[in-house]
What we know:
The protein has strands at residues 2-7, 11-18, 22-29, 35-41, 48-57, 66-75, 78-85. By secondary structure, the chain is mostly beta strands. It has a four-stranded antiparallel β-sheet, with no helix packed on it. The model has no long low-confidence stretch (mean pLDDT 94).
Amino acid sequence: MKVFKYYLTLGENAISLPHNAAEILSVGLDGDNALCLWAKVDDTVIDQQNQYVYVAWTGLDLPSEIGKLIGTVRQGPIINHIFHLYT
């Protein structure tokens, strides 16, 4: 097992993770003030599958496929809300 970092941008983000062998741990800012997601990953599992997350700012419309909130991160004046996205 290892912890990996994935960079996020506004809107839909596809993250390639091992099938049934990864757990999203948290969201936050890294040392360069970039919005990131951290996941615990079994890197011995070869079968990869995209998981989708959605980053929205406060006040923006959300897609109908929006799922459970992963976390909220302040980035200067911007408040990022990161959700699971069911496509």
